[in-house]
Amino acid sequence: MSTGLETTGLTKSFGGVRAVDGATVAFRHGKVNALIGPNGSGKTTFFNCVTGMIKPDSGTASYHGRDITGRPPHRIARAGIGRSFQLCRIFPRMTALENLLVPVRSRTLLGRLVSARQRADLDRARELLTRVGIEHLADVQARDLSYGQQKLLELAGVLMADPETVLLDEPAGGVNPALIERIRELVRALNAEGRTFLIVEHNMDLVMSLSDHVVVFDRGRPIAAGTPDEVRNDPRVLEAYLGI
Ligand SMILES: Nc1ncnc2c1ncn2[C@@H]1O[C@H](COP(=O)(O)OP(=O)(O)OP(=O)(O)O)[C@@H](O)[C@H]1O
């Protein structure tokens, strides 16, 4: 079993609240992993710690055995981890296509000057819009896309950097059933091509149908991990969710 992203004793407090409390987790590399748990159990904070958005107070995060604890987001991205956000991060007045090109272009000055590179980026952006099924919306301003379409655009944006591991924060939240189905198929296909996924999601149907490995958080730390069937039948998980 190959491990990519791992944490040991990861901890982050906000004031008196231990949002992440000594979390030791190993995700399965090459697989679809899900991180689930009740509201406020620390999933997003955990995500933010491993992607460099916030610095943990203590503990470590590593990727393929290399320490990434507290590294800035661009360094972690360069190591091969891409992420989406719970609330879409897009530029509303830019078109869908422009949204995919902005982060790439601004990455290096050289990149901006080399037209062959620009053409390659443009080709890739169009290819990814097609891949997520919104190529017909390439020239539409992002603010005029539906919320689900914006999420697909954000996924395309994450894929622009060609990350080996993709972290998705609530990809199905607020998205209509048809687009949830598309997201499910996309994750399956991208995973079959070798991409690892780590998904924070409340939609249990999506989690259970998509994941190889599910980690359940409660009060800032994992309380169970295993296949969907294993966690579904775990009394600790039922207790955390239902308080029984
Ligand atoms: N920036 C912050 N300042 C203060 N408290 C925070 C901050 N971010 C998170 N928290 C608190 O940390 C705890 C964990 O929150 P977090 O958002 O990580 O949980 P979550 O599992 O992602 O929740 P949800 O499923 O509702 O998105 C909560 O009690 C939350 O109120």
TrEMBL record:
An example molecular function term from Gene Ontology annotations: ATP binding
Cellular compartments per GO CC: plasma membrane
SUPFAM superfamilies, A to Z: P-loop containing nucleoside triphosphate hydrolases
Keyword field contains Nucleotide-binding: yes
Listed Pfam families: ABC_tran, BCA_ABC_TP_C
UniProtKB keywords: ATP-binding, Nucleotide-binding, Transport
Domain ABC transporter positions: 5-244
Alphabetical list of CDD domains matching this protein: ABC_Mj1267_LivG_branched
Name of this chain's protein: Branched-chain amino acid transport system ATP-binding protein
Organism of derivation: Saccharopolyspora shandongensis
